[in-house]
Every structure is written in C-alpha cells, then in structure tokens.
Design a protein that fits this description.
Layout lengths: L1 H9 L1 H24 L18 H14 L3 E5 L5 H12 L5 E4 L6 H8 L12 E4 L9 H10 L3 E7 L12 H13 L5 E5 L18 E5 L13 E5 L1 H11 L16 H30 L4 E2 L10 E5 L3 H13 L21 E4 L12 E5 L5 E5 L4 H15 L1
C-alpha cells in the first residue's frame, strides 16, 4: 500500500486532467439528452418488427449527437465490436473495391473477416485488401502515400485507434485528424473509417470531429458505461449509415425495423455513465502503469501523457509472471473470482490466449479485465475498471504476487 500511495501522489496532476475531461464529456452527454428530450417512454422495449420503435431510433440519434455525427445505429443486434465492424465494412464495400488499412495489420479477430478463405470474408466476395505498416508505432505517411498511389479502387481507408495486441500507443484524435487530412490531400474522396473501440470519452473530441466519416465501437467497452448488456454502435455520415443499415437488416428494409423486448434503459443510462466510468478506467490504468514502472516493468502508454484509450500493455520476462498477473485480476473480480485462468485456443486468435474477465456483463472490457497471447515477449493487456477503488485493490493483489 505504501508503493500505491506513492504512485497516487505522483499521479495527482494526471488524475485532475482526466477528471476535467470527464466533466466536459458529462456535460456534452447531458446536453444531448436534453436536446433530444429523452423521456422514460424511450426505455420501453418492442417486439416483432419493431416499427416505430422510438427508443431504438433516439438511441441512434443521441449517440450521433454526442460523437458529432450526422446519424447513428445503436443496436443490441450488433453482438460485439468485431461484429459491428463487419456489418459496417460489408455495408460499404462492393466487389473489386479495396479496403486500405493505414494503421498496420488489423486486430486478430478482424483478419478472418477481411481475408479469410472460404468463410464468407470480404475477400470471398471480391473485396481487395491493402495495408501500410506503422513506423515506430506511428503512421508512415510516406509509406501510405506510396501504397495509395499504387492501389486501385480504394473505397474505404481504415484506421484502428487502439493497439490491439501490438506494442504501440493508441492514436489520439489529433493524430487521427492528421491521417484524415493527409489522406484527403492525397486525393481520396471515399470513406475514412475508424475502429474507435476503447477510445470513446478519453478525450474531449471524437474522430468524427477531426475528419473521420464513420466510427464504430462496442457497447460493452467504453460507450456502454458498464451497464449496456450487449450491442454496438456505428455513427457517421448519413449516406454511409443508410448503406450500413441495409446490411444490418435487409436492403429493402434498412433501419425501419429492429426490436428489443428487454427495453433500452440500460443503454441510455450506460451512455450517461460512460464519461465517469471511462475516467475510472483511465485512472486505474495510470496507477497500474506507475506501479509497474516503479518495479521495472516496461509498459505502454508512457506515463508522461494522458492515455488515448483505456488499455495498458505490460511486458514481462516470462510466461509465468504474465499468467500470474492476469490470474490476480481474475481473483480480484466480483464474478468468478474463485476461477483460475488458463491459456486456451480462443476463436479468432492465432495463439493461445489467457483472459481474466470476472465481469457482470460477460466479456465486458470496460470492467476490470486483462488478457494476452501467451508467447514472447509476454505482454499482458490490461483494461477497464468500473471503479478506481476496484482497480486499486486488484493492483494490491498483483503487487503481493509478483512485486
């Protein structure tokens, strides 16, 4: 506890900066609720086709307003971040189009979506894929320009904001804006698409406000505030949202249908809580990062700046230490805290993965969680924390085990 208290003292100014961002975003969310006149009737569920589902429609509108977009889709039928990204990409891309990723190779679970063989991937439907590696963890603008000039029919430029299982900092909105400006100056007039997972509400602005056309994320990460039981969001320009809506349901129907009998209160209340909840996760991330740094463990993002997403990558010198770190996160969890995590072959990943997620919402990474592929250089990816106090307790357990 002495080490933790020393870390807290060193982080006072950074904690204050995070609280200022949370206040700004809380006011932004409250103003959106007020402008759209959200009332208890919007919480009501519907069945069947869901025609005239006011709660569903207003949920899309409020997310769009908060994120600075024209319109939005928020749906319980988007089952994960990967599913939301898949629906959006299939809605935008056609045979012979090219998807160009400028942030390196996408996250593991999306690779099968893009270029899987005979599994219904974009590649199976004739969509081409190109990507440009990062340079020192940052966009390689010279490489992007060179690859773009050589590539035909680029329809969507893709940016992954968070690190995935890579050792790099998440992109700030300022950096995303620089990418958008560079791409436009290169002559691209198609859709700039940002995977915004883990990045919502960590800054005062969102990618749409700096030039992105579409942003996509999961409701069991930042945007759901720890209350949304499932779902995802897609926000952006109306012309693109219309196309994506036709993929979510059917080309002849679009966003006119979609019911959820359980009701929408947790989705609305989760959005209301999200700025505060994200601040709790960011403060937890900094505390763990500071403590691990004091003990000599290399971790990312660097502690000299406010993080641009809620995840932290911590490098260990052995599989045993990495596994012990993740197990302590599980042991500190309110749900399944008695369970010992083991590495296993998880669908969508290339290596054995160990995951700690003793969460109220299954797999919710806005709640305290940790995971990683058990292979050199043995990196644990830590994220979330609904309350700072929970994260502090988990760190105490971790330090007692590996410190």
């Amino acid at each position: 506890m002495k080490l933790i208290e020393e870390c807290e003292e060193k982080l006072k100014d950074k904690f204050k900066a995070i609280e200022d961002i949370a206040y700004f975003n809380q006011v932004k969310v409250l103003n959106a609720f007020s402008e759209l006149k959200i009332a208890t009737r919007h919480f009501n569920g519907t069945t069947g086709y869901g025609y005239d589902d006011e709660g569903r429609d207003c949920l899309g509108k409020i997310y769009a307003k908060v994120f600075g977009a024209d319109s939005g889709i928020v749906s319980s039928h988007l089952l994960s971040g990967t599913h939301a990204l898949t629906v959006a990409l299939f809605g935008l891309l056609r045979p012979q189009d090219t998807l160009f990723c400028v942030s390196g190779m996408p996250y593991d679970t999306l690779r099968g979506v893009i270029f899987g063989e005979n599994n219904g991937s974009l590649k199976d439907f004739g969509v081409n894929f190109e990507y440009c590696d990062l340079k020192g963890g940052k966009p390689d603008f010279a490489g992007i320009e060179k690859k773009y000039k050589k590539t035909q029919n680029v329809k969507v430029v893709y940016i992954q904001r968070s690190r995935g299982y890579e050792l790099r900092d998440a992109f700030s909105c300022e950096e995303i804006g620089e990418i958008c400006k560079f791409i436009r100056n290169s002559g691209f007039n198609g859709c700039i698409f940002v995977d915004n997972c883990y990045g919502e509400f960590v800054e005062k602005i969102e990618p749409i406000e700096v030039g992105a056309d579409i942003i996509v994320g999961s409701l069991i990460k930042n945007a759901g505030g720890g209350l949304a039981p499932t779902g995802g969001y897609i926000c952006g320009k109306s012309e693109y949202i219309d196309l994506i809506g036709k993929r979510l349901t059917a080309p002849s129907i679009g966003l006119e249908v979609g019911s959820f009998e359980g009701g929408y209160r947790n989705f609305y209340q989760g959005l209301f809580l999200a700025p505060h909840t994200v601040a709790q996760a960011l403060k937890t991330s900094l505390l763990i990062g500071q403590a691990m740094d004091e003990l000599g463990y290399k971790n990312y993002p660097s502690l000299d700046k406010t993080p641009h997403d809620i995840t932290r990558a911590i490098q260990f010198d052995s599989a045993e230490k990495m596994v012990n770190f993740i197990r302590e996160v599980q042991y500190a969890s309110p749900i399944d805290g008695y369970v010992t995590c083991e590495p296993w072959d998880m669908p969508g990943y290339d290596d054995k993965i160990i995951m700690a997620a003793g969460t109220f919402v299954s797999g919710a990474s806005i709640e305290l969680s940790a995971d990683g592929p058990v292979k050199p250089p043995y990196i644990a990816y830590f994220q979330g924390g609904l309350t700072y106090e929970h994260g502090k307790y988990a760190l105490e357990r971790i330090l007692n085990k590996i410190g």
